[in-house]
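pasting for ref
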Amino acid sequence: MKLAGMALCSVLFSVGLAQTAYVNPFVGTSLSPLREPGNTSPGATRPFGMLFWGPDQVKGRYYRYENTSTRGFSLTHLNGTGCPAFGDVPILPMLGTPVAQKDPYEAAYDPKDQSAEPGYFRVKLSSGIEVQLAADVHSGIAELHYPAGGGAHTVMLDLGRNNTGVTDTEAHFQGRMVTGSIASGKFCNKRNDYRLYFAMEFDATPAKMETLDKGAYISFAETVTTLHMKVGLSYVSAANAALNLKQEISDWSLERERADARAAWDKVLGLVEVNGGTEAQRRTFYSDLYHALMHPSTFSDVNGEYLGFDDKVHKANGRRQFANFSGWDIYRCQVQLIAILMPQVASEIAQSLVADAEQGGALPRWSVANNEAGSMVGDPSDLIVASIYAFGGRDFDTAGALKAMLHGANDPEAKMRWSPARPHVDEYLRQGYVQEEEGKRLGAASITLEYTSADFAISQFAKALGDTANAQKFLARSANWRKIFDPETKYIRSREANGNFLPDFDPGTGAGFVEGNSAQYTWMVPYDLGGVVGAIGVDEANARLDRYFSQYGSYFGGPYFRIANEPSMECPWIYNWTGRPWRAQEVVRKTLTDLFTDKTSGLPGNDDLGATSAWAVFAQLGIYPEIPAVGGFTLNSPIFPDVRLKHGSQEIRIRATGAPGKIYIRNVALDGKAVSNWIPWEEFSNAKRLEFTLSAAPDKDAGQIPPSFGRAGNQ
């Protein structure tokens, strides 16, 4: 694989200009050592961009680096999802006209003939056609080089195909312009739908433009060997798509747009400047940071208009409206990363969720465009908004946010469009847990734990806003995890309608859980880890953690750590709560070394809109936001000896004496003051220096136990 600009990395990085040169957009496009893919896309996009223009493939509905054919280059993607999504308006350049082609249309290529950088993608097809793509926020430009001969030089719009199924298409021709739309939805086979509008323009006059069944093609004379096309997107109208295109890309220079995209990515990637370490480590870090800052997606147009969850056009005055929230995934650490680096963007994300609730009836769980997909479980928007607030993103309607949280948590009739805000919340309110239904794989224990975490987030948010009554009420509700903790086995277990725990218990199987098992989920009480450790017993907790981390697991394949799945993300740092912080340092470093690299196989599983990559970013920095809705970090040993981290208008320098090679923390100081295992956000955000001293041997001092928030905790 050849990455553009890589030869200049070392020189440019020293003057802070080349973070993008360290990014490999192909990371996560092949199977990891755990035989799971990251499901990432190497296409061209901007930070939080609406347009994500890249290749789609014939075999399967995910891009794989090693595959050798494409069905086109579609305009929309979601990074790292577990269910296929988007892939709208595949654009395939070809020789000749579609009449001579078989359906489905496709083109072969050699994987070695691909290259990519943030905001740009290139491939040479076996037909001899070279495709280059560069992205703006709502729009993009392509440069197509056709070989001499071979028939008409054609651009095929295969509108009837995407990754979930297209229900309606339209295309209209006018001079060098094509406008149209497609209707789709059904993410994860749910009831969501959306309509995407496009406007595209060519720099040459077509010889022929025709519609096909759910498609169209535009042909040019063979003398047109270099063809430029620009495209704009909108979820409001074709007119807005054309406006987005006109305001963002004024000429036909792909190189100028490529340079602008690179500058836009350098601006956000440059918020974290890492120094030292190996070149491979820097490539891994910036590839992870890149993937963590792709989503959520800009949804409002350049004029501020967007289609709301009530299917009406609204205007986001003075801000952006965002869409595409895989809530169950990103609340763990990805939104915290955005809030730290870009508090204003995070505030706009929070306000977008408040607007969604006002227009759709409740906060969304897993939204795609302007509709609820209802995928996964829990009430994650509570945790997203509260975490953004806790880490400094506070420029949004906090009163409206709390109102929406309370509505979803207290009213069994609350719905986000067609989907209940909290399914089975009537059971939860009545008995403190969701019960497992006979003959169904409901995952009641997982749902209950998600609700207790959401209740904790509401308590913290209400407390910050001065609502003491709700703060106390929801903190008490967050203790409901104890109602599904079995004191005999000392594991979290689902209960049946009669109150009994599910029979035939095995902590390594998935009965009663969603994408996981009891061995993984028993730890998923991040706000009261002191309570969990106390209920298990500290010695048994340490022994169980050692077994848990002895190998990498799967959803249902044994009681082991599965970093690619979100309930396991917090687990390495639990050792900081059991008095063995050196084990957290070992586990985090081993996971990073084994599973996160700068190669195509360098993500251990679905990136889930940047959630997995955000985990790796924090782990490499040596700080992790262990408790959603609480501003603060638990610690592990950093990878790099020197990091400059910008947050808002301030900057902190993270230094590690003894790195690289040494993984054990000897001591830590924040502005010269000793700290241990936990740093509150208020202290971190006002500090100038965080200094680690590392050693080759573990320091087996337990240090300070980080905070817990429960009846057995210290808060």
